[in-house]
Automatic annotation (TrEMBL):
Binding of substrate, residues: R215, V216, G217, D218, T238, G239, H240, G241
Record-given protein name: Asparaginase
InterPro entries: Ntn_hydrolases_N, Peptidase_T2
CDD domains assigned: Glycosylasparaginase (cd04513)
Record-annotated site: Cleavage: D186, T187
UniProt xrefs under Gene3D superfamilies: (Glycosyl)asparaginase
GO MF, any single term: hydrolase activity, acting on carbon-nitrogen (but not peptide) bonds, in linear amides
UniProt-listed SUPFAM superfamilies: N-terminal nucleophile aminohydrolases (Ntn hydrolases)
Biological classification of the source: Bacteria, Pseudomonadati, Bacteroidota, Flavobacteriia, Flavobacteriales
Catalytic residue list: T187
Cross-referenced Pfam families: Asparaginase_2 (PF01112)
Native source organism of the sequence: Empedobacter brevis NBRC 14943 = ATCC 43319
Entry's Gene Ontology cellular component terms: cytoplasm
Length: 330
């Protein structure tokens, strides 16, 4: 009988212990620390990035998504006829047609792209529709245009009077080569980190002025003009698209960050790769400009370019600023 009573006491004690453990577990569950809130940051290429960042920050500062932020940010530049290298008002190809390229990528590796798109002011939004509403990742030319119309986008003449006038002047001497800088052509690439710690990016351009009809640069190509890996970071490129494609530039920058490179050093290494591959074309290298910007998961950012003259905009908790990118040549 005594043994039986002792056994029952032990069971009671065990039950009490288990019950206490369960209560403790419930208490821990109730007091689990909330998910970490990240400090948002957005980067974009060139001086028009200042205004684009302002638009993106309106979303990021309200805890919006990086994806929405980058789309809205670059749309501002796409719609500005005074920016002659992106969207409406962009300089045409040698046939006088304004053809636009763009791509977008989110934190889940969803991607969308359009190339050689005519008559649509916001190719970045068409690219997002491709990403979200088709089984494909890229639409080009007339197919992209028809898709845009089906999705409610409006057909518009994108060739402004000043761009048309310059194109007609160019036709008088088609050997004229414009320098590879923002005055000729340049992409707006934008990458952002939101308060949830997610990365996204967007890239959009009207491409090289007076290019051959049908030419596509790096801007709409995931891995060249833009790449996002939500575990590591994001990068985007601007400048001579052919050279960026040659090294799969933005993907290279992200992979270098995966190996432990800082964003700045990853951009620098990518630029050096381009220089290495163009050493046999020394004279050509003198006229090639490429710049990269990058951000890692911790919100650290950096940039590098071939020649002086490239700048980028950064908006974080300290405000919005324009920064001169470091260059290989001086």
């Amino acid at each position: 009988m005594s043994n039986r009573r002792n056994f029952i006491k032990k069971l009671g004690a065990l039950g009490l212990l288990l019950g206490t453990s369960k209560l403790d577990l419930n208490a821990q569950t109730k007091h689990t620390k909330p998910a970490r809130v990240h400090q948002p940051v957005v980067l974009s290429t060139w001086r028009f990035g200042i205004e684009a960042n302002n638009e993106a920050w309106k979303i990021l500062s309200r805890n919006g998504t990086a994806l929405d932020a980058v789309e809205q940010g670059v749309k501002l530049v796409e719609a500005d006829p005074n920016e002659r290298s992106v969207g409406y008002g962009g300089r045409p190809d040698r046939d006088g047609k304004v053809t636009l390229d763009a791509c977008i990528m989110d934190h889940q590796a969803n991607i969308g792209s359009v190339a050689g798109l005519e008559y649509i002011k916001h190719p970045i939004s068409v690219a997002r529709k491709v990403m979200e509403e088709t089984p494909h990742v890229m639409l080009v030319g007339n197919g992209a245009f028809q898709f845009a119309l089906e999705k409610g986008f409006k057909k518009e003449n994108l060739l402004t009077a000043i761009s048309e006038k310059e194109w007609k002047e160019w036709l008088k001497d088609t050997n004229y080569q414009m320098p590879i800088n923002i005055e000729n052509h340049d992409t707006i690439g934008m990458i952002a980190l939101d308060a949830n710690g997610n990365l996204s990016g967007a890239c959009t351009t009207s491409g090289m002025a007076y290019k051959m009809h049908g030419r596509v640069g790096d801007s709409p190509i995931i891995g060249a003009g833009l790449y996002v890996d939500n575990e590591i970071g994001a990068a985007t490129a601007t400048g001579h698209g052919e050279e960026v494609i040659r090294i799969a530039g933005s993907h290279l920058v992200v992979e270098l960050m995966r190996q432990g490179y800082s964003p700045e050093n990853a951009c620098k290494e990518a630029v050096q790769r381009i220089i290495k591959l163009t050493k046999s074309r020394k004279k050509e290298l003198e006229n090639i400009q490429v710049g990269f910007i990058a951000i890692n998961k911790q919100g650290e950012y950096g940039s590098y370019c071939i020649h002086p003259g490239f700048n980028f905009a950064v908006y974080d908790q300290t405000g919005n600023q324009l920064i001169d990118g470091k260059s290989i040549t001086k």
